[in-house]
Amino acid sequence: MRTPVSTYRLQIRPGFTLQDAAETVPYLKSLGVDWIYLSPILTAEKGSDHGYDVTDPSAIDPDRGGPEGLTAASKAARDAGMGVLVDIVPNHVGVATPVQNPWWWSLLKAGQQSRYAPAFDVDWDFGGGRIRIPVLGTDSDVDALEIKDGELRYYDHRFPLAEGSYTEGDDPRKVHGRQHYELVGWRRADNELNYRRFFAVNSLAGIRVELPEVFDEAHAEIVRWFRDGLVDGLRIDHPDGLADPEGYLRRLREVTGGSYLLIEKILEPGEVLPAGFDCEGTTGYDALADVDRLFVDPAGQDALDALDTELRGGQAADYEEMIRGTKRRITDGILHSEMLRLARLVPAGTGLGVSAAADALSEIIAAFPVYRSYLPEGADVLTEACELAVRRRPELADAVGQLLPLLLDAGPEPGAELGRRFQQTSGMVMAKGVEDTAFFRYTRLGTLTEVGADPTEFSVDPDEFHQRMARRQAELPLSMTTLSTHDTKRSEDTRARISVLAELAPEWRAALARLQELAPLPDGPLANLLWQAIAGAWPADRDRLQSYAQKAAREAGNSTDWLDPDASFEEKLAAAVDAAFDNARVRAELDSLVELLAPYGTVNSLGAKLVQLTMPGVPDVYQGTEFWDHSLTDPDNRRPFDFGARRAALAALDAGDRPASYTDDAAKLLVTSRALRLRRDRPELFTGYRPVAATGSAAGHLVGFDRCSAAGAGAVTLATRLPRGLEQQGGWRDTTIHLDGTMTDELTGATYGPGTVEVAAILASYPVALLVPAKH
């Protein structure tokens, strides 16, 4: 099996095609990248910039470059000695525009007689033999239906007509009543939908790849990539939504000839991949959380907690209770259709009605500490969740007691459908209730609320970090590591700047108080989140920040939400963002804050980047982040960027230029390129892991590790942590490390050792260093 040393994620879209990717390969090769990593490339909804709404799995999207584009990108990579990793989406397909999806169009036209009916996860009995499509403004909008060109039309929406269901002159309402689908008001989706979706996205319909014939047809084009030698590995999107992730991975490994596989799996703290998962690891959110917390000052926790409590009116945030509430908000709201479908599967003999069963099932899911328990090895997780549900709601003891044995049975037998579907549903609730709700409510420090992280873990000290890295080296050496992705809520550099607030808690308290006085927002926790984000991303244009503010407020759901926005609150929210641009006092306050934070944030950024690129695992660089990138949540983190500027800057570095300051764009490019090149060109320097200890007054401000092997020294990473505190204490002073041999810094070319070396000397030019054994 071919495996990558590193990857570089490219977002393939109509504006940046596979042909464009091919043209970037020489630059990426020069940067030091080992494999290119492509976002989904199968045919997707027209105009989709992300590609996760695949409408035709049988072909590469012509708008993304078509099959000739993949051939070009693959050839360019091959000619450069690089590999190709592609993101695939097995859980769902895009159905926003039915005519674009031949599988869905067939289902709507022929219903249960369609050859694609088994592919979709529809509860036909609940819908009276019809699939419910929530596209109408209200149910009364059936009066707006028209028959045109042999199709049923609702404004711009087009739907097929079943054979023999229409003759010239028929009333469109009556024709609609004869179809295999029922168009209903969009608000009915929460309670009455009868097809499985991706989370609560009505336009993404789940498919059943656990069926061999569905798997084969959905993966035929993907299998061709491997047969033709175009692709080397796959990233699997949202495996927790599948009925049988373990079986899926086993089958995928088989049909791709034993290729490199990564899964987008969120591992909660302490959780490990199931032993039966045939893959190399995850897409790296777990690594991201560890790296971020290494650069957060634990001394700031009490002050930030106190501020958070004050902003909540004196009531301290209880995260466990918060996520119980946000999960129940989801199970009782946008995913109630899914909970009701589970409840309808509860045997009548239990005596539980649908409503009571849905309540008990929702309480169990709300008690889950992880996204999904994989049975049978995850039986303890499920049992403990049931116990917690009963402690919270003692009146549910009988119901939970009857449900537990049913939920523990998640095998392939027909009678185990409840257990299987429960497994598929728990991850949806976790993602929507925690990532997309609680993470916008638990706002004491924005760095902590990133996908895959536990925000109650405030920081990680170097000793704990080293223990985690040693485990990663031993257990998941080929798992991906990352700092920014298309899904991160804040880019790596934005988070690195926000992390500085843990070192400046009193200053932050004062600044936030002044901002709230000048541009008041009647939601203290949201104001905390908003101004942290603005400070982290500043300077930014108005539209970007307005878009972020609205999304964050609606996701939090405390003062406004997506379904029923509060116009009055959102006016105040927009005014607060506008004040950053239009109110001179607010602008001055913000500029002053950012001026204070930015230099320390840059130190954090360089440290986090070097650590991520050199720690155990396969490092990924998200497109463009070899320069400073202060992005917020999608779609902000998918903005176009300038490859030309990066190419020119790299050429200048290679010609001998060195950044005048560690704050220059070129400083991050220097760190990124030298670390990637070293990993690719001298893999023997990255085969083990050993902490590098510092001694002296500022030893706690250094994180260091040696990627040595049993045979000898390896690459040594040194990074500064908690830079504000270091500066306040007078710098490195007497702090030293011991080097066993003569070492050269890849960033500066300077040579040190052997023996005791002052850290101040090594880090005189940049706050990080990458040392390698000097060549003899």
How do the helices and strands line up, and which of them pair or pack?
Blueprint: E1 7-10, H1 18-31, E2 35-38, E3 42-44, E4 54-60, H2 66-79, E5 83-88, E6 92-94, H3 102-110, E7 131-136, E8 146-148, E9 151-154, E10 157-159, H4 172-177, E11 181-185, H5 189-192, E12 197-198, E13 201-206, H6 212-227, E14 233-236, H7 245-255, E15 260-263, E16 281-282, H8 285-294, H9 301-311, H10 319-331, H11 336-344, H12 354-366, H13 379-392, H14 397-407, H15 417-435, H16 462-475, E17 480-481, H17 492-499, H18 505-518, H19 524-537, H20 542-556, H21 567-582, H22 584-614, E18 618-622, H23 643-654, H24 665-681, E19 690-691, E20 694-695, E21 702-706, E22 716-720, H25 723-728, E23 736-739, E24 743-745, E25 751-752, E26 755-758, H26 759-762, E27 768-773
Parallel strand pairs: 1-2, 1-18, 2-5, 5-14, 7-11, 14-15, 15-16, 17-18
Antiparallel strand pairs: 3-4, 6-13, 8-9, 9-10, 12-13, 19-21, 20-23, 21-22, 22-27, 23-26, 24-25, 24-27
Helix pairs in contact: 1-2, 10-12, 10-15, 11-12, 11-15, 12-13, 13-14, 17-19, 17-22, 18-22, 19-20, 20-21, 21-22, 22-24, 23-24
How would you describe this structure to a colleague?
With 776 residues, the protein is of the alpha/beta class. A hairpin with a 5-residue loop joins β24 and β25. The longest helix is centred in the last third of the chain and has 31 residues, at 584-614.
